[in-house]
Amino acid sequence: FHHWSNTISNTVNLKALKRDDIHADTAFVGYELSNTVGDKQLKEVCNDFSKAYECIAEDKRKMNEKMGDIFEELSILKKKCKQIDHQRKTVSNLRYDLEEILQSNIYKEDQKENLEKKLGETAEKTLVEMDEFMHLSMINGVI
Known about the structure:
- By secondary structure, this protein is an all-alpha fold.
- It has helices at residues 2-11, 14-17, 22-36, 40-104, 109-136, 139-142.
- The protein has one domain.
- 88% of the residues lie in helices and 0% in strands.
- The longest helix is centred in the middle third of the chain and has 65 residues, at 40-104.
- This is Spore wall protein.
């Protein structure tokens, strides 16, 4: 037991590996152990162990890349949501301003027409963007 303990201790100096992936580090340890043992079956077990952890490390890297892409897509969708929410608030404020002017009965006709036009254009643009977001964002496709 003492012999194997020393062998593993000498082989498993993780700080010397200078990697960030525990699975790749573990694969490296298995590989190094296979080089230190003489028994053919034990060497094969160490190699199989190393290969298994190499596969895990590679699959983990691939998964992290996919998750990064998904996170980026969701960030874009979140930004678009905030933009649409801002436009909806603008529409609400324009509607309120127009209603306030109409209730005051003291306004210039061109001022009222400008607000009506701006409200109509902004509301239409916001509605189109909301509709596009719902149909084209494919949130379910991202998740």
